[in-house]
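Dear colleague,

Following up on Tuesday's group meeting, I ran the structure prediction for the two-component complex that the binding team flagged. I've pasted the input sequences exactly as they went in, so you can double-check that nothing got truncated or mislabelled along the way. The structure tokens for the whole assembly follow below. Feel free to forward this to whoever is handling the docking comparison.

Inputs:
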Amino acid sequence: MLQNIAIGQYVPGHSFLHRADPRSKLLFIILFATLVFLANNTVTYAVLVAFTLYAGLLSRLSLGYILKSLKPVWILIVFTIILHIFLTKGGAVYFQWGWFTVEERGIQQAIFISLRLGLLVVISSLLTLTTSPIDLTEGLERLLGPFGRIGVPVHEIALMMSIAIRFIPTLMEETDKIIKAQTARGANFTSGSLVKRAQSLIPIAIPLFVSAFRRAEDLALAMEARGYRGGVGRTRLHKLAFSWRDAGIAAAGVLLAITIGWWRA
Amino acid sequence: MQITFDQVSHIYGKGTPFERVALHDISFTIPSGSFVGIIGQTGSGKSTLIQHLNGLLLPSAGTITLGDTVITSKQRLPHEQRRNIGLVFQYPEHQLFEETVAKDVAFGPSNFDLPEAMVEARVKEALEIVGLDYEKVKDRSPFHLSGGQMRRVALAGVLAMQPKVLVLDEPTAGLDPMGRQSILEAIYRIHQEQKLTTLLVTHSMEEAARYADYMLVLAQGTIALQGKPDEIFMQAERLRELALDVPETVAFVSRLNQLLPDKESLPNSVYREEELIAHLLERLSVPKEG
């Protein structure tokens, strides 16, 4: 029921992308996002699309599954396309009906901006598909480390994030279970007036809250019982270490930046 | 209500990297009024199997027949049929949500548009069946009860729908031995009084041996063994292969039989604790009289 959400769902594997350091992946995505916004003509967009497809290959996940990550944003993409086709003017006129025209620039912008959105979503899904949430937050914690010196509680933020991410599937499973249990008791979530349908969420929401609080309490107790007292003096079981893969990612980043910088109009 | 599974398979997450076959080619028939024990290791498909019984999951292939209703991958169970099949999940107390016990138990029957007076009567009856005093608990918050009482309230919530089939997924998990015994006795009493068809999912061979008159042993999503309990317990070797054990009564009888001469050995059909005790007492008392 709730298993069809691809974004943020880690698929275990041993590909190049899986084994690269989360820090380099995160930094690369920041660079890539900047480059996506710098791209402004056919050549640069083609380079970015080709690169993203290649990165998809490197993840050794099926292309169809990666593209599934576009599902939550497709409405946004379609909306962008329509807006640009109708509202952006300039260049040759392809179609005219009264005051209403479809012009060259409009088509071009529609393609570019939707590509821009799509590329951003796909590349960041590649990150979450190939990086376990634990690695991801650890990478973030290390990258944000310097801000700790000016009083930002980096460790606590990272811990909160990893706990939140860790509990998403658990709570989804729990929700699924509660929905099933209440359905078995004859609850009906899909018919009736809006008020009635909102009311029908109560039998799901209350047990879910109760269980979330119970889990939080259990987790806090278990952590304290094992001596957790915040980030000070904490050592790590798995130390992040850069490897040749990260050198490869850095090289790809530099190369991509130069290419885009050179070819952009 | 007779229940028939005909070559039922279920696949989770079809078309994703997480695709997993949970049930494969399951076929069995349960006559109306039986008490069926479903046994298997964690991950053997027990929970998936029982969710098919009231249409929460649809089979990926195959046909399920409940009385006169047929469920296939394309044919859902009609809403009003749901109340005929009472499904009690693992840790059912996690589904409690109302302010008072009475309101929570009433949730099931009210979902099927019964008149209010009838709902109240059913709530009262269901709470008494599970051994709770209606007057004492009806206005209390279900969250202020003890674990065992919460489980009883949740069970009453399903019984109040007056199902014809009762399906229980490890109803005794996490209870103390006393609590286990009394909840199972309550279930068995309703089973007999209301002539229900009952399916009990359990880890414990003892529980299955005590109550079941038919057993399904699941392993890796298929039915490894099915039959009457004594037939199942005779295949001790096969059970051990499946990492399951025969009940202690059965182990005791077979060890006793090794010591006894062949013609005096105990029959395999004696595996319920009380029956075994009665049988042994009878045996032991004969020489005294003679």
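Chain B has a mean pLDDT of 88.

Cheers,
M.
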